[in-house]
Design goal:
By secondary structure, this protein is mainly β. It is built from 1 helix and 11 strands, in the order E-E-E-E-E-E-H-E-E-E-E-E. Strands 2-3-11-6-8 form a 5-stranded antiparallel beta sheet, with no helix packed on it. A 4-stranded antiparallel beta sheet has the order 1-5-9-7. A two-stranded antiparallel sheet has the order 4-10. It is globular, with a radius of gyration of 20 Å.
Length: about 150
Amino acid sequence: MLQVKIVRLNKQATFPVYATSHAAGMDVSACLEGPVTIEPMATALIPSGFAIELPEGYEAQLRPRSGLALRSMISLPNTPATIDADYRGEVKVILINYGKEAFMVNHGDRIAQMVVAKVEHVEFREVDGLGELGTTMRGEGGFGHTGIAAR
């Protein structure tokens, strides 16, 4: 099990927690002094009340919660958001309201999921042209290259 240091910046903060034994992400909760209202098509930066120290070679990804997206059209505009291993500030979540109604965030509301993942650093080696890249069946096929599934 990977050990990650965490510090409570606000005594009211709750730490991320796995909701089930096989959950990939941990629920991150809002740490607020009072409710925050997010108007339709607006964003808000919601504090978590904690900071973490990830080991070198890891990142934490913040992702939307599917229930909030389904019920209230609440998401993260920069999903997944990345917390780098060298960041030591408070974890904060940018929420966006894609819905038609104002949405209220209260202290303790589960607002995002956090997934910790290994990161590989790469070194690019420039080659002269596409002919020097390995061939695949897909080749240069881009967006929508496989067509639309039969209905």
